Automatic annotation (TrEMBL):
Its main location: cytoplasm. The record marks 46, 109 as: Part of a proton relay during catalysis. Homotetramer; dimer of dimers. It is found in: Cytoplasm. NCBIfam families: dapA. The keyword Transport does not apply. It comes from the Bacteria. Pyruvate binds at residues 47, 206. This is 4-hydroxy-tetrahydrodipicolinate synthase. The active site is at 135 (proton donor/acceptor), 164 (schiff-base intermediate with substrate). Keywords: Amino-acid biosynthesis, Cytoplasm, Diaminopimelate biosynthesis, Lyase, Lysine biosynthesis, Schiff base. Pathway: Amino-acid biosynthesis; L-lysine biosynthesis via DAP pathway; (S)-tetrahydrodipicolinate from L-aspartate: step 3/4. CDD domains: DHDPS (cd00950).
Length: 293
């Protein structure tokens, strides 16, 4: 199987109560994910609150993650911005030796045209020594990467190997999976629709929920990839409420609340994000108890 088939986890960045990066919490998280059986890890995606981290903090997190993982799982680096030049310069400065791909979200806030999105990723592909995975998440960026643009990029640049698709648009998924090159990877970027996306031809997920439930979620994904949708459906439905709660008051506040309940790391987030309410934290704790019983 391709190294990016199955469950990748977009790791949170644990923080101490004073807002500093909690490297011991990050170590605990990495060990939990490896022992939970996930296939690969993503450092500093949007779930990692990368927008709130300094360049120095990002560098230290990338280095620390690589050191702890020590080759046990493939690693993907999240490198994105709404300034194409900044992304290109960050990629050129990045120490690639322990990482196997770059995940780059489409530019946020600027709302570029499809041609602008194409030219943005063209510049990234030409600068990157690593394979590139596109990331379409219009709910966060304010613009959509349509299927025609994705297929154009996939055909034009051999180092653009896949897309994390989080648009929630099944019409787009259908067109993309119909028209893409055979070896181009479509990866779910939305935990709640991972099962139907794999049924259509996606190769797995880059998950938020997997931070807290690595075994449960990766087991479900493997059932899907093995074609056992009866068992996969049962596994999927057993965590539907937990998945909903992860996003009720925003990501990653929900999954950090779960990680705190599980004793992996604390639930601190950086402004403008805040921790979930006591009501939601209580509901998350109840779901964890139900799932783990």
């Amino acid at each position: 199987m391709n190294k990016f088939f199955g469950t990748g986890v977009a790791m949170v960045t644990p923080f101490q109560a004073d807002g500093q990066v909690d490297f011991e919490g990050l170590r605990n998280l990495i060990e939990s994910l490896i022992s939970g059986g996930v296939e690969y890890l993503v450092a500093l995606g949007t779930t990692g609150e990368s927008a709130t981290l300094s360049k120095d903090e990002k560098k230290k997190i990338f280095e620390f993650t690589a050191e702890v993982v020590n080759g046990r799982l493939p690693l993907i680096a999240g490198i994105a911005a709404n300034n194409t030049y900044e992304v290109v310069e960050s990629i050129k400065a990045f120490d690639t030796k322990s990482y196997e791909a770059i995940l780059s979200a489409s530019p946020y806030y600027n709302k570029p045209t499809q041609e602008g999105i194409y030219q943005h990723y063209k510049a990234i592909a030409e600068a990157s020594p690593l394979p590139v995975i596109l990331y379409n998440v219009p709910g966060r960026t304010g613009s959509n990467v349509n299927s025609e643009t994705t297929v154009r990029l996939a055909n034009d640049f051999k180092n653009i190997i896949g897309i994390k698709e989080a648009s929630g648009n099944f019409d787009l998924f259908n067109q993309l999976l119909r028209d893409k090159p055979e070896d181009f990877l479509v990866i779910s970027g939305d935990d709640a629709v991972t099962l139907p996306m794999i049924a259509l031809g996606a190769v797995g997920v880059i998950s938020v929920v997997g931070n807290a439930l690595p075994k449960e979620f990766s087991d479900m994904v493997r059932l899907c990839l093995n074609g056992d949708y009866v068992s996969a459906q049962k596994a999927h439905l057993s965590i539907v409420e937990f998945t909903r709660l992860m996003f009720t008051e925003g990501n990653p506040a929900g999954v950090k609340a779960a990680l705190k309940q599980l004793g992996v790391c604390g639930d601190a987030v950086r402004l403008p994000l805040v921790q979930v309410s006591e009501k939601t934290a209580t509901a998350i704790a109840a779901e964890i108890k139900k799932i783990k019983q």
